[in-house]
Request: fold
Amino acid sequence: MKRLFYLFPLLFFIFHLSFLSAQPYDPSKVNKKAVQLYNQAIERAQDGNLIHAVGLLKQCIELDNKYLDAYLSLAGVYGQMKNYKASVENYQKAFAQDSNYTMDYKLPYSIQLAGTGEFEKALDAINDLLAKKPPKNENSLKACNYRKRCYEFAIEYAKKNTGRNYVFAPQNMGSNVNSTESEYLPSLTIEGKELVFTRRLGAFNEDFFYSKKNATDWDKAKPIQGEVNTEQNEGAQNISQDGQLLVFTGCNRPDGFGSCDIYISYLTDKGWSEAVNLGGRINSDQWESQPCLSPDKQSLYFASRRAGGYGGSDIYVSQMQANGRWAEPQNLGPAINSKGDEQSPFIHADNQTLYFTSDSWPGYGESDLFYTRKGPGGDWSVPVNLGYPINTISHEASLFVAADGKTAYYASDRSDSKGGLDIYSFELREDVRPYKTLWVKGVVFDKKTTQGLPSTVELIDLSSKLLISKVQTDEKGNYLVTLPIGKDYAFNVNRKGYLFYSDNFSLSRNSPDSSYEKNIPLQPLEVNAAIVLNNVFFDVSKFELKPESQIELDKIVQLLKDNPTLKIEISGHTDNAGKPADNLALSNNRAKAVVGYLVSKGITPQRLTAKGFGETKPAADNKTEQGRARNRRTEMKVTGR
Reply:
């Protein structure tokens, strides 16, 4: 009994402390000087001077550590500054003093928790609010339920993507690119050596700047040369992969069709040309913006609020026609566009992976970054969220991914920003990368005169026989074609009055780190002009044509139909492995197989000759495997016109 008696005072003391700490918050008892500082802090916050507001609110708390409104407002200001950790700490200090008075703040508290990646705690906070004191205001209730769905999505996404060693570590591109102003919307040429971006100058003007990569760093950014930068507003630009075209958005211009239109500028010897409005087919009486050219410059993706869409802003694509004009834009459909806003389309150099933002597809809040892939039939896959921490509770604006498929660029106002938005680079998580893409570039020219030739360059998937890209060279014969790895390609160059040129790139098994430079001499269509048919294939020691050969053989069929008097010789050649007699027979049978295919397509036999030369006319030394591979070939020669 005596021990129990001694416990009673202790239990009473603990109960008394608990009762005192649970006393409800009374704003009327707050220190008057703290209240004056608080009112000043609110004014500073409303003026946008958040740092000053933080200092004043801290002084309030020093004067009165029971001042809950100061804790709550300090948490809110830290949230605006994206200092999520400090925001969470101050909300928790307020909750610890009076859970009832502060219950309404569980919604912003949950948002700050989500900002730190604590999605399960954020869900607990919002569920606590909905269970104990659901908002009576309809908009507030909608906001709670919206955030709840976001947290549930984040938790489920994390469960499905466990075990990855991904570290999100954006690197500021430095003071040569970034300034005290805001820089955003980066885009690069295919080689990754020229960066073009938008810089805000003052309150309203935006201009385009560029920086070139040297051996170790980026050069000091300069305004792009020429006539495209004006006193009017230019923004949301994208440079073509070959660096020759710039598409961008101009708003409220005299030649505009709507509030914002899409324009194009061409690179000339004197810099970028004066901007040209892309016309009433691309532009409507509504808002068009954020254009992006496909790597072959045959497709133009953009965002638009024109009538007939699925929501606010939809993504459209227009195809370049044979006459050099853009076709009527096509909505990408409900597989991508939703009842909300889809914006910032970016088609990667692989010409198959499209990144965009959406505020309606399930995500982390506001607008997130997604990707989708174009299938063989042209259909788009279900959009995939890029996940946390690439996507956050805030608005994700745009993304650019380099040809290597792993280096990404975006704009952010992170803590190490030089001022406003800065451009950062980071390594993209492996499962959301596009296909690594190489490229081939060069000049097409007349073999006799060496003059550049405007020509058509085609890239075809050998396995599916689908045309991957069809590029027109410029007037000087310059071209660039992208090569996504993982497939084997036929490469053809065509011009009327010349023999076509063929090559192939085997990238299904090999993944070279270097790209290709290939200058292509086209031979005038005349007697004795000859080419190697690089895309005619046979199995070892066989003479049955492989299915992949059809692409090349159909080119010969078309050539003969376009030139009805043309006569050709198909010749077969081997290396020196095996018996000469066997090689001669094999080469002869292979030449006959090609001729047989041409006849089956309607070419008269009188125009065709088949001849095998075996190992007697080597094109290279047979001492190396590379040389022997060159000797195993099929050729076509013009014998009459």
Notes: The first helix runs from residue 2 to 21.
